[in-house]
Predict the structure of Diphosphomevalonate decarboxylase.
Amino acid sequence: MAAERGEKWVLSVTAQTPTNIAVIKYWGKRDEELILPINDSISVTLDPGHLCTTTSVAVSPAFTHDRIWLNGKEVSLSGGRFQNCLRELRSRATDFEDEKKGIKINKKDWEKLRVHIVSYNNFPTAAGLASSAAGLACLVFSLAKLMNVKEDHSKLSAIARQGSGSACRSLYGGFVKWIMGKEDNGSDSIAVQLADEKHWDDLVIIIAVVSSKQKETSSTSGMRDTVETSALIKHRAKEVVPKRIKEMEEAIAKRDFPSFARLACADSNQFHAVCLDTLPPIFYMNDTSHRIIGCVEKWNRHEGSPQVAYTFDAGPNAVLISKNRKTAALLLQRLLFHFPPQSDADLNSYVIGDKTILKDAGIEDLKDIEALAPPPEIKENASTQRCRGDVSYFICTRPGRGPVVLADESQSLINPETGLPK
Ligand code: DP6
């Protein structure tokens, strides 16, 4: 398999993959092993400049077993989901040759060659943001490149799906639909791009990372309990989501923000309602999440049409999608009014990501936050409205692109000599 350079070579690929936020939620599986959902879902891919996973994968005849390091720590690769992805990729690997480096790998060699995987998130892991979507998508995307897998993104999405359902939607930028499919073998349960990130680039997304002491129920076990015990989930999957998917596709195609916002908020609320309808009930949102919903609902009502949509995944963090930069600045003012930082905070780490939104909001330092006037929709009782310290920090971002290979070897997370993390 290796030519002139003997058994010493290390071949690697590095890729960057975005995370995504569902605006029509996936919740519930009809097949646990293949990860086949009970309804279609739609997501927005987030700008990888602010939230993404970078993964380097390497292969070498010197490697003795498959290994993975996540955010600096080696973890076990023995889980069924990792193994399913690896098996699917190896079976689709093709011949590879790099004449300059003197490396030649035949299709059948991939079964025997072991891989090293090193992965980092560019956002704090403690944020409680769904990192599995970006992580698994990046693992599949980078290994597919390394192994010279020639399948298109929709086929790769079906492999990423077997790592984590929501990961299949991170194979594309912009607006993405995961089609649930009908086949028992999952071959038609794939993600497709509805529109790329340039299609609706007015949208600005602000994530409120909400402080939480509570240990959350994992999505995997939560949705299993919901499918087993909730009567409402059946109504949701059969009657509600199919109609919403059509309406959401239309809203995205027409850039119809009021419909988009109405559907996204309603679907997030129904997802949390089915969690509450589960036995034992699951509470992902907390008081701060509820307060954020209250602020947005009040503001939208006051304006007479939606300015902002909210959506919450399996945790208390709010993802707020505003219709343009102007409303994003007004939203950030409101958020900072309601949730000012602790007095010893550093503004630079309290609002991260696209800082120009902070500038548009007229906030240059902590004093500007303290001086914010209550928004017109809450004039009365304003003194009771400020909840210092309930939000850890905010991330300003926007819809973003799909996975890319980082060609510059200096960006690799793997030492080319040792094949171990740098
Ligand atoms: C609430 O994809 O994390 O974020 O398929 O079991 O790995 P598994 O679950 P996961 O579930 C995500 C659920 C959600 C909604 C969504 O992303 O659609």
Summary: The chain has eleven helices and 19 strands. The mean pLDDT is 93. Residues 22, 25-27, 35, 41, 130, 132, 164-166, 219-220, 313-314 surround DP6 (CB under 6 Å). The chain has two domains: 11-199+404-411, 204-397.
